[in-house]
Amino acid sequence: MPRLVEPTAAVHRSFLEAWDELEPEQERWMGARGLWQEWTRQELEDPGEFAAMVEAIKAEARPDTEIPPDLVHQTMLWYVEGDQWLGRLSIRHTLTPVLHELGGHIGYNVRPSAQRKGYATRMLTESLTWAARLGIDTALVTCDVDNLPSRRVIESAGGELEDERHGKLRFWVPTHVS
To answer: Could you tell me which residue ranges the N-acetyltransferase domain spans (predicted)?
Structure first.
């Protein structure tokens, strides 16, 4: 059964295979960057570089990690089954004005070969517990106006539409189940 976990070097091969499924303009979906460095697909072939990226991503969640003033701490989680990397999800601990307008607290992506299997819905639903532990009572989650699958994912997790801004639908999703 797939589950959300902290990034791990155990999915190295599968992470790279997922990257190979993407079009060049989609590479940012992989989240192959830390606060101070971004890795290329070629660099991550090296297991040591991959391990360094994993540690850099984990560091972004720690409150004692210094971050640039325009960024926020975030917890990135990977959706994995065994050694298979299926997707990623980021929980931003706070919102900047830009995140409040466009990005929200939670963003997620599922690798192309794993789409249409209900993983995004399970990822978002499972992440709400993590968000609650971070002190987020209601999470802002956004999607493009024309992204009906993502809208369904957000609504199935309890998202209530607030409005549309700049081509994005903005939903508030409770993180505590009553």
So the answer is: 40-178
Tell me the domain boundaries of the chain. Answer: 3-174
Fold of 3-174: Aminopeptidase (3.40.630)
Beta-sheet strands, E only, within the chain = 3-5, 74-81, 84-92, 106-110, 138-144, 160-165, 168-174
Give 86-125 pLDDT, tens digit per residue.
999 999 999 999 999 999 999 999 999 999 999 999 999 9
Secondary structure tally for the chain: helices H, strands E: 5, 7
3-class state of residue 116 by DSSP: coil
pTM exceeds cut of 0.85: yes
CB-CB neighbours of 42 under 10 Å: 9
CA 159 – CA 151 distance, rounded (Å)? 9
Under the banding of pLDDT at 50, 70 and 90, the label for residue 73 is: very high
Helix axes 47-59, 12-20, angle to 10 degrees: 90
End-to-end CA distance of the chain: 25
